[in-house]
From TrEMBL:
Name of protein: L-rhamnose isomerase
The organism's place on the tree of life at top rank: Bacteria
UniProt GO MF annotations: L-rhamnose isomerase activity; metal ion binding
Listed InterPro entries: L-rhamnose_isomerase, Rhamnose_iso-rel, Xyl_isomerase-like_sf, Xyl_isomerase-like_TIM-brl
Domain Xylose isomerase-like TIM barrel stretches: 69-246
Pfam families in UniProt: AP_endonuc_2 (PF01261)
EC number(s) per entry: 5.3.1.14
GO biological process: L-lyxose metabolic process; rhamnose catabolic process
The keyword Isomerase belongs to this UniProt entry's keyword annotation: yes
High-level lineage: Bacteria, Bacillati, Actinomycetota, Actinomycetes, Streptosporangiales
Length: 405
């Protein structure tokens, strides 16, 4: 019998530095009060999310949005604030040179520049102790005939191989796919199959990351999760929710049932039980900046923008939404489910599944937080903490997240 609380206590959800900055759409970026002016302040805000939820101990960086002179110093600051540096996200999409692509660009010179940036991100991993590089390419073409689809795959494979070779012991990269946008006809890494094929060819340090906003409407994301986990190729999630395209809304806001179904596959794949040593192959929680940690486990990351809602509570709510979906997934009576499945009892199996989803897990989570020495309701605890009033008074001229400008 699974110790549900032990698993929940060990859960680790990573928040993105860019969620703390001002963001918006291409129509307007709304400036909010108290928004961080530099990466140091973003980490301080992320530490608040961890302080109130107890399960958000690492922060993903995006380079160059979080460019600093001394990354080791930034990691030290994070540690002092109570968090660690998580995945390093590369950015080869915000430079004029990348109009026709980055690592798949027809020009060898532009490809060199893009690959050099990815290698620089591995240097930053070395300096911060991060064990994960996240690669997302906006590369693709807008018109049939614009470039050779197959040649672009060759160029992509070449760049990925060079970055793979540069990875040190205990480091890995996660390849992110996205159906479309900004390319509208043929994106170079449009789906999990493409990402998976490149990663399989490269080896164990290359895995796929599933951004829940990057699929065609109606895609069965939990199937992808189950498949990748079975193959040992699910490296992590970029959680967010979407109503239409890549909306980057708070995870669990649009479709909490989908989030539950995804977390059910995570539980089935023992990807959470790893955290408490139930799976002998892997007993340590996924990394952050812990020294000497090997790349393993699924990274549960948020990739969201809070365009109209306040940032820190937006992140707290999102962490809680993942936690609630996880608790429900852990409540599925797996024995009863297996028995009903083996009997071909369609309605019985579905009832077991839905029973867990329909359980109100909020009292259980409130109890868990109290046991962890936290307030039972992180949202009201943050509101009462006075932190927002403090940053609103202190910070003038908050930074833009870099995204959605
Ligand atoms: C692209 O849409 C993406 O999901 C990638 O993860 C980027 O790095 C991120 O958004 C920026 O928010
Ligand atoms: Mn993403
Ligand atoms: Mn996205």
């Amino acid at each position: 019998m699974t110790d549900i609380k032990a698993v929940l206590r060990a859960q680790h959800i990573e928040t993105p530095s860019w969620a703390y900055g001002n963001s918006g759409t291409r129509f307007k970026v709304f400036a909010q009060k108290g928004v961080p002016r530099d990466p140091y302040e973003k980490l301080a805000d992320a530490a608040q999310v961890h302080a109130h939820t107890g399960i958000a101990p690492t922060v993903a960086l995006h380079i160059p949005w979080d460019k600093v002179d001394d990354y080791a110093d930034l990691a030290r600051h994070a540690r002092e604030a109570g968090v660690g540096i998580g995945a390093i996200n590369s950015n080869v999409f915000q430079d004029d040179d990348y109009m026709l692509g980055s690592v798949t660009h027809p020009s060898a010179q532009v490809r060199r520049k893009a690959t050099d940036h990815l290698l620089e991100c591995v240097d930053i991993m070395d300096a911060t102790g991060s064990d994960t590089l996240k690669l997302w390419f906006s590369d693709g073409i807008n018109y049939p005939g614009q470039d050779d689809i197959r040649a672009r795959q060759d160029r992509l494979a070449e760049a990925l191989a060079e970055v793979y070779e540069r990875l040190g012991d205990g480091q890995r990269f996660l390849l992110e796919y996205k159906l479309f946008e900004p390319a509208f006809y043929a994106t170079d890494v449009p789906d999990w199959g493409t990402a998976y094929a490149h990663c399989v060819k490269l080896g164990p340090k290359a895995q796929v990351v599933v951004d829940t906003g990057h699929h065609a409407p109606g895609t069965n994301i939990e199937f992808i999760v189950a498949f990748l986990l079975r193959e040992g190729k699910l490296g992590g999630f970029d959680f967010n929710s979407r109503f239409y395209a890549d909306d980057d809304l708070m995870v669990g806001a649009a479709d909490p049932f989908q989030l539950f179904r995804i977390m059910h596959e995570v539980v089935q794949g023992a990807a959470l039980h790893d955290l408490v040593g139930e799976n002998e192959q892997s007993t340590k929680p996924f990394g952050g900046s812990a020294e000497g940690s090997a790349p393993r486990g699924v990274a549960f990351m948020l990739d969201q923008c809070h365009n109209i809602e306040p940032k820190i509570p937006g992140q707290i709510r999102s962490v809680m939404n993942v936690q609630e979906a996880t608790a429900k997934a852990l409540l599925v009576d797996r024995e009863a489910l297996s028995a009903a499945q083996a009997d071909g009892d369609v309605l019985g199996a579905n009832a077991v599944f839905m029973d867990a989803y329909n359980t109100d897990v909020r009292p259980l989570l409130a109890e868990l937080r109290e046991e962890m020495g936290l307030a039972p309701d992180p949202m009201s605890a943050y509101a009462k903490s006075g932190y927002f009033e403090k940053i609103a008074a202190e910070r003038v001229g908050g930074q833009q997240a870099g995204w959605g400008a």
